[in-house]
Amino acid sequence: MSTAPIKQIHLAAHFPGVNNTTVWSDPAAGSHIDFDSFVHFARTAERAKLDFLFLAEGLRLREQGGRIYDLDVVGRPDTFTVLAALAAVTDRIGLTGTINSTFNEPYEVARQFASLDHLSEGRAAWNVVTSWDAFTGENFRRGGFLPREDRYSRARELLATANELFDSWDGSEIVADAGSGAFLRDVRAGAFAHRGQHFDIEGRFNVPRSPQGRPVIFQAGDSEEGREFAAAGADAIFGRYGTLDEGRAFYADVKGRLAKYGRTHDQLKILPAATFVLGDTDAEAHESAHEVRRLQVSGQTAIKYLEHVWNRDLSAYDPDGPLPDIDPEVGENTIALGRASVRQFRDPLETARQWRELARAKNLSIRELVIATTADQTFVGSAATIAESIDELVQADAADGFILVPHITPGGLDVFADTVIPLLQEKGVFRTEYEGATLRDHLGLSVPGADQGL
To answer: Which residues form the Luciferase-like domain (predicted)?
Structure first.
């Protein structure tokens, strides 16, 4: 009786900068903007032989009630700058950056990623995202907003156009000449012309074809449009389902879309984000996880989160008291600006009704309710328990691997690298050394156009 081959696990790490999983009050917490923090995190990820590190991007400081949101007060550095600097202090780890498709232009983005791929010798990756709000767009253009259908249309065309630029150096031969120096025999190198709904550009791309041909393409999003976008052109998708049943359903759905684009299952990796809390024993880890959740959701954080739904100033309410008896204020103008979580609550009145029922049934305060209704840690337990859980989910086709999100900056990945990784290596499901030099090598992806001589 035949059995399915053992899958190799893909693991990466998200730099825990500006997000609600970070515990800033922990004495071990450090800066999310000092370069030393990025270096520590990147070198830990590389020591653990992870596929890549991932940087999110914030294009505007988030606001709530007319004030800058507390996690943004020290700023949000530029993704390309950080990744280029990290390329100089690492050797193998992939370098993935979130770059927005709504406000950027294809020539500029393609040039930056092709340059990063050269500087890193083939380790660059682009997480293609859209932007949903005019508030962020004000940093780029007046009324900087696109309807939902136009955002994905622009993203698809921007990616297609960038790929045309990446491929515009079609292997043209470079010839050395003692008199005039190096010159191109094929004068078509870098020439491009694109005519489309969103872009009408023509010229010559000035960065030669990079070590990977194109950077690895990631997509983050769970919508119907996002899943289809990933199936059509991404190399990997960030999922948000870390449980067996939900993970398998998402995995089957997205992988099932590949065939109509002429793609096979191994051409798209599904990598959910995953938080973790480790302990010497499972019981110790669960006790620590409870404390981490309380630190992640302080009283002030709970009130701010509730304001996303109520769309009102709730600062007068006690986070350890009951939910407000007034209803949410429904409307387009929201108290929280630039916060992705605002989009989660399409029907604030219904959300408030459900939360009141839950709070009454379990006698929950505001803070306790927010803890109960926001994401728990994906993996909690001893190193052995977590290693076993990760392997079980990957072998069951609930994921191809995970993007680890520590709750401490920058040293939160250290204990995972020192305890869980060796156990996965002993099981034979994770590499002990890098076998290739590029990120495509790490992920088992082919070089685009290689079969066409590009």
So the answer is: 25-396
